[in-house]
Specification:
Elements: E1 7-11, E2 14-18, E3 24-27, H1 42-64, E4 71-80, E5 88-99, H2 104-118, H3 120-126, E6 130-139
Parallel strand pairs: 5-6
Antiparallel strand pairs: 1-2, 2-3, 4-5
Helix pairs in contact: 1-2, 1-3
Length: 140
């Protein structure tokens, strides 16, 4: 199965990229690089893709396990290489779960299944970066 996207230059350093679902996203760069920050940075968007992919897995798995959380967020930090072409050589994903009576074992199992088995973006990152994951539980 192949995905196709189209990315259109919108002027200056701004680009709009579509998605097979029909949605689109704007990409831009910093003023120091000629942009206006009118969109997401392409490299940082990769980190968002990583979080989104894993997050979708985890919520799907938790739903199948009939396990709920009040809130869930992921913080992703990527370290770029010093030399061009700059790419993320290490990435840390912190999973934060919030709620009362959190089933930590089931939640951790869902995280592990995403990280180790289901998240294709995670697997792509592992091809070029050291990936570290941590899970945190916050009782309300």
């Amino acid at each position: 199965m192949a995905d196709k996207i189209t990315t259109q230059w919108k002027g200056n350093m701004l680009f709009e990229s579509d998605n097979p679902s029909g949605n689109s996203v704007l990409m831009d760069t910093s003023p120091q690089n000629g942009g206006n920050y009118d969109g997401l940075g392409p490299k940082a968007m990769m980190l968002s893709s990583l979080a989104g992919c894993s997050g979708l897995d985890i919520i799907s798995i938790l739903n199948k396990m009939k396990t709920s959380v009040a809130d869930f967020k992921m913080e992703v930090v990527g370290e770029l290489t010093e030399q061009h072409p700059k790419y993320y050589h290490s990435v840390k994903v912190d999973y934060h779960f919030y709620g009362t009576d959190l089933d930590e074992n089931k939640i951790q199992r869902a995280v592990d299944l995403s990280v180790e088995t289901y998240c294709g973006v995670m697997e792509m990152f592992r091809r070029f970066a050291k990936v570290e994951t941590n899970t945190y539980f916050h009782s309300s």
